[in-house]
Amino acid sequence: MEPVLLVILVVLSAVGAVIGIDLVSKLGISANTSVVGALVAMLIGRIPLGFLRRMRSVHRQNLAQSAISAATFASANALLTSVAVPYVFGRTDLVWPMLAGAFIGLVVDAWVLYRAFGSRLLPADAAWPPGTAAAETIKAGDRGGRRALILAGGTAVGLAGTLFSLPLSAAGVAFLGNVWALMMFGIGLMLRQYGPDLFHTDLGAGYIPHGVMVGAGIVALGQAVHLLLSRRDRKYTAAGADRKRTAAAAEAPSTAPVEQADPSTAYTVDERALRLSLIRGYALFTGGAVILAVLGGLIGEMSPLGIVGWVLFAAFAALVHELIVGLAAMQSGWFPSFAVTLIFLILGLAIGIPSVPLALLVGYVSATGPAFADMGYDLKAGWLLRREHRPWDPFEREGRRQQFLAALIGFAVALAVVALAWRSYFGQGLIPPVAKVYADTIKSGLSDPDAVRTMLLWAIPGAAIQLIGGTRRQMGVMLATGLLILTPQACWLVLGALVVRVGYRKLRGPAADEELNLVGAGLIAGSSLGDSAQILKT
After folding, report:
1. Fewest CB atoms within 10 Å of the CB: 91, 178, 406, 470?
2. How far apart are CA 524 and CA 515, in angstroms?
3. pLDDT tens digits along 257-314
4. Residue predicted with more confidence, 221 or 396
């Protein structure tokens, strides 16, 4: 990696990490800073110095947005939140072991997505809305013209929406994602907001959304396993596509046109490679859990059989957590990390895991998921920026490798920032709110004896809806995600944008897709800038 680019990535990562821990500890929110990184890289490229002009490359800008977003989510959602759990629990001696375990989980989390991206389970041509927003921002800055004007208009509207507390990113997502998945997401948001008026009960209370997520998650895992065991290829790989086109060209008469398929839409990860990636991911999560158990002193607190069970359960929970969070993020741009972690916390209480081991388990599990989703966003952005290059397949694979290296730089900087800052933040009482919920839940235990029964009951409709929607739509997971989020008026923005999308496409035809993608990307980019700017208020 070029020295100048490395310095820029380190500086941007430091900025992203500080933004991340500040927002999550003071406001309880996290911001997607990838657009910020892209814009800064564009500005650096305009500086009239020869060694900085290289930053005008859209691919270097892609690495910049990958590094800063990785650092932001790593510092806030993975590292600081994880180490806050044992701190709030009263075990400050476990902060450093927890930081080590969380960092291992973070890196494994991103590695699994890096290896699985482009498969039938996590296809590159799925929505991944924030990634699309980042890519469109970079392309608009590079090409200008009408695309830039549309994107800039959407960005201005999205940024203005944050000033009036309107979640316009929800409307932006509805212009980009799967219509069926987002319809269920909007219905979930509506039921959560208007449940007290319609049904005289708060559907967000009493573990109802968690139950729907449990059912949908179990079916989603079953669908993933079925996909992994399947031998059929619904799409050929990119290399296979090249071979087939070459053979077709050789066999066809010289005057006959050969249809040129887009190689970028082919799967780059087949079922065998996907299976190996997930199996190795589970093995790595198991190794990380072993290290955490040793550093956390669990050897002296649990029986040998109990430690083995704890390690295997922690690795399983980490893998399942990242998959469910990743599938939700792929379709909607939201990831229900808190809710899925809370489900495993409740399961841990139900099976009788002692409080200290459970606190470490929750911290370990919560460190996975966000980086998985963010890496998917970043690789989606890179895929959009690289898909017109020919030959595509080797260029795409090398681009993904460079992005993964950029993310590792972001993770390393985030680790350093959290290691230096946690004492200062926690000493001022600036602790991520979700960490307090985890710790308080562990301390109080299962105060609601019907919690498990409620989740099992509501798991039935969640499972049924997920089964009907199938792997591509993830309707059950998206319904549960909507039920877990209480954001006023977001339901109307999602459902209204879907109506506009369907109507505008009927009016304009296929040309509507590109225009709506730009508008949606602009709304998300503007909302992201507004969220990041909130650090100025703290």
Report:
1. 470
2. 14
3. 444 667 888 889 988 999 999 999 999 999 999 999 999 988 878 889 999 999 999 9
4. 396
Judge whether 19 and 535 are in contact, CB under 8 Å.
yes
- 373 HSE (CA, 13 A, CB side): 29
- The half-sphere exposure of 128 on its side-chain side, counting CA atoms within 13 A, is 27
Q: Read off the pLDDT of each residue in 496-512 and give the average, rounded to a whole number.
A: 87
> For residue 343, which amino acid is it?
I
Residue 233 has pLDDT above 60, yes or no: no
The pLDDT score that the predictor gives to residue 292 is 95
Q: Which residues contact 54 (CB under 8 A, 6 or more apart)?
A: 2, 4, 5, 45, 60
* Rounded-to-10 torsion of CA 25, 27, 28, 29: -110
273: how many CB neighbours lie within 10 A of its CB? Answer: 16
Say how far apart CA 36 and CA 303 lie, in whole Å: 49
Q: Which of 265, 274, 336 is nearest to 114 (CA)?
A: 274
Which amino acid is residue 467, in one-letter code?
L
Question: Are 382 and 406 a contacting pair, CB within 8 Å?
Answer: no
By the 8 A CB rule, do 394 and 135 touch? Answer: no
Average pLDDT over the chain, rounded to an integer: 84
Using 50, 70 and 90 to split pLDDT, how confident is the model at 385?
Answer: very high
Hey, is 354 helix, strand or coil? coil
Q: Which residues of 491-515 are buried (b: 16+ CB within 10 A; e: fewer)?
A: bebbbebbebbeebbeeeeeebeeb
Cβ atoms 158, 530 nearer than 8 A: yes
Task: Tell me the H-state helices in 448-510.
Answer: 451-473, 475-484, 490-508
What percentage of the chain has pLDDT greater than the value 90? 32
State the pLDDT at residue 537.
62
Rounded Cα–Cα distance for residues 402 and 172 (Å): 28
- DSSP per-residue codes, 76-137: IIIIIHHHHHHHHTT-GGGHHHHHHHHHHHHHHHHHHHHHHTTSSSS-TTS--HHHHHHHHH
In whole angstroms, give the CA distance from residue 253 to residue 167.
56
* Non-local CB neighbours of 250 within 8 Å, separated by 6+ positions: none
Beta bridge partners of 267: 237
> Rounded CA gap, 194 and 201, in Å?
9
Residues 215-235, buried b or exposed e (16+ Cβ, 10 A)?
A: bbbbbbbebbeebbeeeeeee
- List, in sequence order, every residue forming a beta bridge with 13; answer none if it has no partner: none
For residues 384 and 509, what is the distance between their CA atoms, to the nearest angstrom?
22
Q: Convert 17-50 into a string of H (helix), E (strand) and C (coil).
A: HHHHHHHHHHCCCCCCCHHHHHHHHHHHHCCCCH
